[in-house]
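[INFO] parsing input record for MFS transporter
[DEBUG] input buffer:
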Amino acid sequence: MPSPEADALESARRADLPTPPAPAGALALLATAQLLIGLDYSIVYVALPVIDTALGFSAESLQWVVSAYAVFFAGLLLVCGRLVDTFGARGVFLGAAGVLAAASLGAGLCAGSAQLIVFRALQGAGAAALAPATLSLLTQIFPPGPRQTRALTVWSTTGAAGLAVGVLGGGVLTQLTSWRWIFLAVAVVAAAMAVAGLRLPRPVRPGAFRADLSLGRALLATAAVLLVVLWLTRVTGGGWGRPAEYLPPAVAAVCAAGFVRLDRRSGNPMVPRALLRRRPFVVACAAAALFMASFGAEFYVVTLLMHDVHHYSALMAGVAFLPLAATAPLGSAVTGRLTRTFGALPTLVAGFAIGAAGVALLLPMTSGGPYALTVLPGLVVSGVGQGIAYTAAYGLGTSVLDEQQGVGSALITTVQYFGGSVGLAVLVSVMGETPSGASARAGIALLAAVALAAVVVLPVAHRKH
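[DEBUG] output buffer:
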């Protein structure tokens, strides 16, 4: 029987610990974090013309307001997934929220274009740590079963809506206040998340999967992704023909080869070979890449057409995306029922097919015309498809993850944003910097074709893997 002294010590220890939040409160916090990751990527789109005027960007450097976030987000995800599995999701979540808050504050107060690009890169680094931590915490707080399925649906819904909500919020804040508030608002939310995160439960057993960080391999993997994404964001227009532009991918290939060699020889690989042998996980990674290459790049071309062809203000452009922001959660909400009825893979394929039809419906907007006829139908249909595809992809991939939730979720999100970088680079090379007419139609057709490719590729990959 425990002694009174032992009972007193245990009571004192428990009193020093933060009170764990109710499951609903924890889910709200983690869903907010997931929303913020996508939102912070897209919130700058409709504000780019205003930012350009205020800080004096060159034509080539303006794209880095978007690209700096994506480059560092994709490049650091693997390292951060390793951090989650090694040190625990709660600590990484708190640190990531703090970094994101500080970087967003710096972006909102910056005085020059170079400063803004640096702070956008730091925002991407903070988001890279936040992404695997949120999914890992979700699976810890909600055990496998119906409750975890419902929690994952909510989490995925906010993620699917993040890109659209970012465009909407960016337009509203830019028009009604200042472009600086698109960053300052993120700083406020991230700081609040850090405070609320103090009440998240500490792990009962510190690190079921604990291994060294293997910084050498981590740096090689990060350098490879950073160099490739850097190259893809630079070789637009006539850049493909300059020999010097091929140095970054050549160095990236060397880094990647070194990483693969060292990782295969390691007893604790950063990319566990067991994950690569799991068919649903590999299909989910492919789906995530194709999702961002098609639907992620859709925001870029639609925003430019709204500004250049339809002559929308920042506020009008942001509000114009509202139907997509509303229908993406609807698509995500029905994904669970569709999966139970038809299966995970057919639901995923259906999401891409619906999304591809929605993108194709945007073709008339390249010639102007009424919003209700040329823009609205495409946004509504593609929003439903995006919600279904995003939720189904993450549900399929995470269904086979065990104690390596951090590195598994990081791999899915890494290929998602890597695919987005590839898609955006190819899109810009097809359309040019100011799309209109035939070039804009070619760009939209390309995005629809990428989404349709997923309809064919994913079932084949599932059968052959």
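[INFO] The longest helix spans residues 146-176.
[INFO] shutting down worker
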